[in-house]
What we know:
The protein is an alpha/beta fold. It has helices at 42-50, 72-78, 95-106, 111-125, 140-152, 170-185, 197-201, 221-226, 228-233; strands spanning 4-13, 16-26, 31-35, 57-62, 65-66, 80-82, 158-162, 189-193, 206-211, 214-219.
Amino acid sequence: xxxxxxxxxxxxxxxxxxxxxxxxxxxxxxxxxxxxxxxxxxxxxxxxxxxxxxxxxxxxxxxxxxxxxxxxxxxxxxxxxxxxxxxxxxxxxxxxxxxxxxxxxxxxxxxxxxxxxxxxxxxxxxxxxxxxxxxxxxxxxxxxxxxxxxxxxxxxxxxxxxxxxxxxxxxxxxxxxxxxxxxxxxxxxxxxxxxxxxxxxxxxxxxxxxxxxxxxxxxxxxxxxxxxxxxxxxxxxxx
Length: 239
């Protein structure tokens, strides 16, 4: 049984159809990469999964349960964690305090357990040396790590990553991918929107390409990247 299944989800703003009847399924432990040109509807798709935006039509089924009408905090408690394209830490709080907050309110842990979770995630993401620094003063790589760490502190079964490698150097992106591989090895299911394609291809089991809010291609990464429509629409290349 898929961990997540979308059944004909749709979202419009006035006459603009941002997501137009998309269906997909993600199995437990799988990493699904989402590709598409700017404005294709990728982040809106994430918002429909996380509950930040309500579907106009269709259903969101998670772990065998219809969560279409659940609020974002209820979905988080159920095991759906996410990062945002622009990191959104509590800038005046320390890195450690950000993680304790995520564990308390996202995972519903009591204080002692939240402190333990925060410490584990600090070690896991390489942020332990920055634990007592204000989150707002971190460099980009560490802000990206903190965005990932805050999602991990909610103890997700399903992790949504929105362009987490964007803006990083080649070396920094490799460090991030190594961290994501470790997370994947622990059985966490991931859906990853990314424009740094080589980073995405190094970890994704499947790719799903959208354009103008509709599914364009889906399947094994090599086959999808060789698809003539994908090459034309996403990469601006004629096959």
